[in-house]
Design a protein that fits this description.
Rossmann fold, 4-stranded parallel beta sheet
């Protein structure tokens, strides 16, 4: 299968760029028929992925973090919607979080050579995608995500991560979450889903297809990639002593057992607030002044080489 590898050299605080030689060696040894393209700016992988589909590549592989995966998925779907063709998504996780790849057991086994051999084998599965529209600054933004969307303090964590250039992986997200907790002011938000509505001051609302976000926080532990549903987790504003007690439970998913936490599986959800709030998709900040977000599931809309 002809594969376009899109490398984001800035992913993982530059680790992806430094791994380029090793990556290409692994791809050649695995026998992957590939062409390498390199992004040079945020959003660049969207355009490159769309171009790859138009050029007839059967697979577009994201070499980077969850943000790179998100851009490649948006590019593939944009090309598909324009009638330019279609392609499967390949994964070469080299970024800070790489939460989506965690959904496939053993994906990191064998390092880059193992990932390259997965691409060469070409085994595929189909997964759900979340389609979103966001009202922000008088504009309406349309995007998709493949792992998760955060509205509230979890999106603010993504903002804080950008200000921590010296940290990577889970450590970056832990420090960022503590900084966000110290400064974030929960707003009154309305979350509507399946004929229900939650209207209260919230820390965050997460809508996800995958289980992990933020480099290792198990926010939606029951989520499945192919159940044609999205998992919703709503966390209301908590007292400081509750935050201290409950914070560790985000790592093993046991926070969903707390009486304050609201969870559901949904096909559509709407999050709104009179006060602006941050939104992040697949770990990347989409906006910091959203007023309304609508999310719909696109059942099994993306083929992934696993």
């Amino acid at each position: 299968m002809k594969t376009c590898v899109i490398l984001n050299p800035a992913a993982g605080r530059g680790a992806a760029g430094r791994a380029r030689y090793e990556l290409e060696q692994a791809l050649r040894r695995a026998g992957v028929d590939y062409t390498l393209m390199v992004t040079h700016a945020r959003g660049g992988a969207v355009e490159l992925a769309a171009q790859a589909v138009e050029q007839g590549f059967g697979c577009v592989a994201a070499a980077g973090g969850d943000g790179t995966v998100n851009e490649v998925v948006n590019g593939i779907l944009a090309a598909r919607q324009a009638g330019a063709g279609d392609a499967a998504l390949g994964l070469l996780p080299l970024g800070t979080g790489c939460d989506f790849a965690k959904m496939f057991p053993g994906f990191d086994t064998g390092g880059l050579p193992g990932m390259a051999y997965r691409l060469a084998a070409g085994r595929m599965t189909s997964v759900d995608v979340g389609a979103i529209s966001v009202e922000s600054g008088g504009l309406e933004l349309h995007r998709v995500f493949i792992n998760g969307l955060g509205a509230g303090i979890d999106a603010q964590v993504a903002v804080e991560v950008q200000n921590l250039p010296g940290l990577t992986g889970l450590a970056a997200y832990i420090v960022a979450s503590l900084r966000a907790l110290a400064t974030y002011k929960p707003a009154v938000m309305s979350v509507r889903y399946d004929g229900k509505e939650v209207h209260k001051r919230l820390f965050f609302a997460t809508v996800a297809s995958g289980r992990w976000q933020g480099g290792g926080f198990l926010l939606t532990p029951a989520a499945r990639l192919d159940d044609e549903l999205l998992d919703l987790c709503i966390v209301p504003k908590l007292r400081l002593d509750e935050v201290i007690r409950y914070y560790p439970r985000l790592f093993d998913g046991s926070h969903v057992e707390l009486r304050q936490i609201i969870t559901a599986t949904v096909q559509r959800v709407e999050i709104a607030s009179p006060a602006p709030f941050p939104v992040a998709t697949d770990g990347e900040v989409l906006t910091t002044d959203a007023r309304r977000v609508c999310v719909d599931v696109l059942p099994r809309a993306m083929r992934v080489v696993v």
